[in-house]
Amino acid sequence: MSTHVFVSAIVNTDVETVWKELRQFTFPAKLFSTVEKAVIEPENASATSVGIERVVTFKGGEASRHRLLEVSDLNRTISWELLPNGAGDEVGSVVSAKITTVSVKRITQTNTTFISWETEFSSDVASQNIK
Fold first, then answer.
1. What angle do CA 76, 131, 100 make, to 5 degrees?
2. Mind listing the pLDDT tens digit for each residue in 39-52?
3. How many Å apart are CA 40 and CA 83, to the nearest integer?
4. Which of 7-16, 76-85, 94-103 has the highest mean pLDDT?
5. Under a CB-based contact definition with an 8 Å cutoff, are residues 82 and 66 in contact?
């Protein structure tokens, strides 16, 4: 059985500025104070190339690996899946599949941005079974 989590917020910046940052798969290093770095693999790949992987290292030393599944400039969405990281990682121990989608929409009345962050995760199915 999968679980769906949805979080949203209003950002007091125009949608183009927000999307410019979020569409880069390395965005966690720029936007979250708990992240030490986000590294793209392979190194010479574009940060918007579907299929690339990133390793996000947190300031506490933990790391997680993700694969980019989609970047849509038309819909202003970015999606990725959590990958196994090695012994004792999140995927191998608790979560067997996790797919996240972040999207941004223009709020026309105030020229601000609505941002949503959705995650489907499961401890008993593979990621190809989560939609």
1. 50
2. 998 888 888 899 99
3. 14
4. 7-16
5. yes
